[in-house]
C-alpha cells in the first residue's frame, strides 16, 4: 500500500509594494554592492562608469559582502539605505 502526502497548507502573506521610482539619477548617491564573486568588481566598475558618464551622479559608495552566498547583514543594509538614493548589486559570475 502507498501513502500519498499532499504538501499543501496555509501560508501567511503580507502585501509588499516596490519602492517609489526615482524621477532622475542626476544628483543622486549611487551605492554599489559587490557580492565578492570573481567578476563582480569589474561589472560594478563598468556600471559605475556608464552611470557617471550619462548622469550627474553626486557620489558613489561601495560595499562588499563578506560572503557571496548569504544576504547582506542588517547593519550593512541599513547603512546602504541611509546613505544611498539607489543601489546596484552584482553577482559577477
TrEMBL record:
InterPro entries: UGSC-like_dom. Residues 4-93 form the UGSC-like domain. It holds the Pfam family UGSC. This is UGSC-like domain-containing protein. It comes from Ammoniphilus resinae.
Amino acid at each position: 500500500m502507498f501513502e500519498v502526502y499532499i504538501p499543501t497548507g496555509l501560508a501567511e502573506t503580507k502585501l509588499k509594494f516596490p519602492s517609489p521610482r526615482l524621477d532622475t539619477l542626476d544628483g543622486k548617491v549611487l551605492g554599489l554592492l559587490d557580492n565578492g564573486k570573481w567578476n563582480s568588481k569589474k561589472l560594478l566598475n563598468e556600471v559605475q562608469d556608464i552611470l557617471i558618464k550619462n548622469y550627474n551622479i553626486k557620489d558613489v559608495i561601495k560595499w562588499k559582502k563578506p560572503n557571496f552566498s548569504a544576504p547582506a547583514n542588517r547593519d550593512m543594509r541599513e547603512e546602504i539605505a541611509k546613505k544611498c538614493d539607489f543601489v546596484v548589486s552584482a553577482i559577477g559570475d
